[in-house]
Design brief:
disordered N terminus, 6-stranded mixed β-sheet, alpha+beta, Pdz3 Domain
């Protein structure tokens, strides 16, 4: 009998909450309306009275970007061109020519060619400078603007004028449907270890990984698998869930999302029968493995289903949704955080503070909370996925970093491709000693010239017209030559892989270089040592 008054009291409390909520919503709507009116009035007056001509579209874009900059780095406004680029990233399909470009010294330079598509068929090569498209000079155009000119309906054509090592070449290109593979390469590293490279979590990527794994399992000697998520910036959450499902049972919690709006609080569980529950598995990550990559690596780590190898991941534990706006623009908004099965969120504690290469850097353990994997191992939140086996980042420091930053591998490979019409199949390709010496000479010249220029700038900045004379250039060059020879084996691996890509495209880089890749070698060694593998997983 005492229940009815209690129920009435609860209803009154609930009704009061509804009244307060409605009042707060009304206040919020008034604030929004008021400030939109102020913004419109200010924009109108500036546009009417400012001393110089204005570009309304650019001005509004800057205003939107500034407004969103106070939130997080992933809540962004997309112009029409940017929205199309984002769609390509998500779906991996568009009509165009099949390439990547960067703007250098005012003109777009081809940096990557996708095999089998329009640019590859027309023998456009990495390093080619695109001077004109359909007679339009491209000097000063942004990468997005160049991309818009290159894309177009399948079957339409464009006229290209390129500069290849000082030689002008005209080409007519026919655009076609481009489908960028999520899995650009898979194969056997040796007789026992399979390898799958996943570049992005676009549509159908789980099916691509599944098909690759089924093909690899046809090898009777296959005993383990390396799943490479390095440089994978993420993508679709559901695809990540389905990839985890390949290795764990049905109805296993993979990830939970929690947001301010109640409808965003969801648990994502595996829905299908797994493909393989026993295959020893290593997942490769680095500082550019983000978002969906961290769901896969973090969840498999939490479930003690795989060892994670490499370097600390990016640290992005946020979920975004994209909302359409007028005139084919879009707004991408962070709507939730995600949590792996142990309960941890791998979002970097302070995403405004990263290393220069974008990595999460070192986060004191005292600032991170501890969680437990299925077998009782300790894992931490707040700073990305920490590998079970950390591998020294050889390729991102020292002489290797200088050669990559100065694009010396890239330039030598371009020069080689423009000198030799063909090379043996990638797996058998070897540089001769003469060719390797030619690379060393080119690299030493380039690096010593760069070093002298840095010294000159520093001296001039400090002393002005009284700048000190430069150090002995010959000695600097000799020091660089010595360093190049000391690291010859590692440099040779990178250089041969880069050259092979010029002839056989992206697959060749993997075919040529996997056996020398330090992360892959460490993963293989661990997978082939079952006692150590099980010990790391707490079995």
């Amino acid at each position: 009998m005492m229940l009815r008054p209690k129920r009435r009291f609860l209803w009154v409390i609930a009704g009061g909450t509804l009244v307060l909520t409605a009042a707060k919503q009304a206040d919020d709507l008034f604030e929004i309306s008021k400030n939109l009116e102020i913004f419109h009035a200010a924009y109108k007056e500036v546009n009417a009275h400012y001393v110089d001509d204005l570009k309304p579209g650019e001005m509004m874009k800057k205003g939107l970007d500034a407004m969103l900059s106070g939130l997080d780095p992933y809540t962004v406004f997309y112009s029409e061109a940017q929205a199309e680029e984002a769609l390509i990233d998500r779906e991996g399909e568009y009509s165009g020519v099949g390439c990547q470009v960067e703007v250098r010294n005012g003109y777009p330079v081809v940096t990557e060619i996708y095999g089998g598509f329009a640019f590859a068929k027309a023998d456009v090569r990495p390093g080619d400078i695109i001077r004109q498209i359909n007679g339009r000079d491209l000097k000063g155009l942004s990468r997005d603007a160049v991309g818009n000119l290159l894309r177009g309906g399948a079957g339409t054509s464009l006229n290209l004028r390129i500069d290849r090592m000082g030689k002008t070449i005209d080409k007519q290109i026919t655009r076609e449907e481009i489908r960028v593979k999520n899995v650009p390469y898979f194969g056997m590293i040796d007789g026992r270890t399979g390898y799958i490279k996943l570049n992005q979590f676009g549509e159908n990527c789980a099916a691509e990984v599944r098909n690759a794994l089924l093909e690899l399992k046809k090898n009777p000697g296959m005993q383990s698998l390396v799943l490479d998520l390095r440089w994978n910036g993420g993508g679709l959450l559901q695809e990540a869930v389905e990839i985890v499902n390949l290795f764990v049972p049905r109805d296993q919690l993979v990830v939970s999302t929690k947001g301010r709006a109640g409808g965003l609080n969801r648990d994502f569980r595996t829905a299908n029968a797994p493909l393989d529950l026993q295959l020893p598995l290593a997942v490769l990550v680095n500082h550019r493995s983000a978002s969906a990559s961290e769901i896969v690596s973090g969840t498999l780590q939490d479930l003690d289903r795989a060892v994670v190898v490499g370097r600390n991941s990016f640290g992005k534990g946020l979920v975004q949704n994209t909302f359409p706006l007028p005139y084919r623009t879009q707004l991408k908004v962070t709507t939730a955080k995600y949590y792996t099965p142990s309960g941890r969120c791998i979002q970097l504690l302070d995403y405004s503070k990263r290393n220069s290469d974008g990595s999460a850097g070192s986060i004191p353990d005292s600032q991170r909370r501890a969680f437990r994997t299925r077998n009782g191992r300790t894992v931490l939140d707040g700073g990305g996925v920490k590998p079970d086996l950390v591998v020294d980042d050889t390729w991102n420091k020292g002489i290797y970093k200088l050669l990559n930053d100065r694009r010396i591998f890239f330039e030598y490979a371009n020069r080689y491709r423009n000198t030799y019409d063909s090379i043996p199949p990638a797996a058998r390709f070897r540089l001769s000693e003469t060719e390797l010496n030619a690379f060393n000479e080119m690299a030493a010249d380039s690096l010593s010239a760069w070093w002298s220029e840095q010294l000159r700038k520093q001296s001039k900045q400090a002393l002005g017209d009284e700048a000190l004379p430069l150090a002995d250039g010959a000695r600097v060059r000799s020091d660089f030559m010595r360093r190049l020879r000391e690291e010859q084996k590692g440099l040779l691996y990178q250089l041969e892989a880069e050259i092979a890509r010029r002839y056989y495209f992206e697959n060749a880089g993997y075919e040529k270089g996997l056996n020398e890749d330090p992360d892959v070698r460490q993963a293989m060694g661990l997978l082939q040592d079952s006692a150590r593998y099980n010990r790391i997983l707490g079995r």
